[in-house]
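Can you give me the bound-state structure? Components:
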Amino acid sequence: MNEYQQLTWQGVWKNNPALVQLLGLCPLLAVTATVINGLGLGLATTLVLIGSNCTVSLVRNVVPNEIRIPVFVMVIAAFVTIIQLLMNAYTFELYEALGIFIPLIVTNCAIIGRAEAYASKNPVHYAAMDGLMMGFGFTLVLVLLGAMRELLGYGTLLSGAHLLLGEWARDLTITVFSSDNPFLLAILPPGAFLGMGLLIALKNSLNHRVEAMMANDDSPKVVSRARVTGDAQG
Amino acid sequence: MKFAVASSPHHRAKRSTGDLMRLVMLATLPGVILQIWFFGWGNLVHFAIAGITAVVTEALILEVRKRDFERAIKDCSALLTALLLALCIPPFSPWWVSVIGTVFAIGIVKQLYGGLGYNVFNPAMAAYVMLLISFPVIMTGWLPPYSLTPVSHNPLDAAWIIFTGFTTDGYSLEQLRMGIDGHTMATPLDMVKTDLTQSLTVSESLARPEYADGLSTAWAWVNIGFLLGGLYLLKIRAIKWHIPVSMLAAMAIAAGILMLADSDRFTSPLFHLLSGGTMLGAFFIATDPVSASTTDRGRLWFGAGIGLWIVIIRTWGGYPDAIAFAVLVMNMAVPLIDYYTRPRTYGHRSEHKKVIRRQDEQEGK
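Here's the bound-state model for the whole set.
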């Protein structure tokens, strides 16, 4: 695996910010009541990650070690502000729906974590790839959790897609079932915690299964044969 | 002459888990009969649904976990959970309520934590809370007792309304819920709570005709039924006295203090003890051997905590009854309680000899 493949593998699966590092749980649990909310926050976080990783990587040799954390936080805050203003301008309703959680991306530990752990030690192109893949992994979990909760809670998928994608996306909404008694638990915070726990459990069990399969394949087949006839002599 | 050996832990009755669970189920009988008498056959139908769901869920999950599911089902713990949950669900809720609740209780609250003996929370109560916050309208839809319902319903009607939403005569649940004068009826706890927000006093609320005409007596009788069953459990020593006694005492004391402070805004201890699920909670739910505290002193604290929380949540909380919330809150406190109430190991002396000596004096040794 070259570095890019390694970064992809780490970001999406092996070191997934949400499922393995368990970082950024506050927005993750709070906004994933629908797919589109999750996707919106995921995209915003990804953009911030790429931007902050690139910038941090560029300035990594200039910033004195003692004050690196405040500098990183300010870089991140700047990007969050840009994203926030952009969303305010172009996807206003989604901006309203996500509310406080957009400015709170600043405090998402996944971002400062990548800046500190990877971007401040590696060249720009790798740092950008790391940001992209970590953001992608995070978005994936947000969307998955959002889909679980939206399906159970409202019986729909992709409702409110027009908030993010524009008017044409209004028809994307899929209504799987409709009920007079929505399953409120899925939409309320406990549903987020339960769903998150189940996702982590699923990931771990898949991991174990794959590892067990790999271990079976790797072990050389030792055929042991007891010699019973002494020296073969014809 | 009878020679009773009093000291040392002598194990007297050898009951298996299954025996114990069946005994507890048997002891709910007086309460169950009274509940059916006053509120119809719905709870029994729900018990059937929940029981089947519980056994199937337990078997499926144990099969996935590659455990021996036959033994786990024979110990009846899943059935007991199903029974306790079915008794808490309003009798004529739709069938899927008890299915979802039981799957949650057995699958998530019990088996995900490792099965019988490992669950942190009381499965029936966790499931009840889950249902209550998910479907608040259905879960607070108690019917008025029989004597106040304009239409009669039989076991077939009960099953019919649970599965289709209508009785065999075509009455909907909403129609059944309307009392004599077209008032929507609720439990006494509900009624007093609503009336208090409409600036009536407690005594005014309790003087209303619906209440006097049977609402209070029905709930009081159901509670007395569970009290009888609980006393039977105490007599045969299936449960210890610590949790129920401390819980009921704490409730009575807390409610008493509140009532002395302002009897217009706070209900009497007797009202608290005989309404809602108090007795069911005290003797059958809080005493769950797995999720309750394990030391005697700890049980006293555990029970008292539940009693206190019930009064607090009933008085100031958003939901009418509070047994489930109180039990879950104290379940969370159990590790802490157990840590601070560890009994002295037999034959060892505590390092704080003074403390021990003081205890000995108190116990009159």
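A couple of observations. Chain B touches chain A at residues 100, 108, 130, 133-138 (CB under 8 Å). Chain B has 19 helices and no strands.
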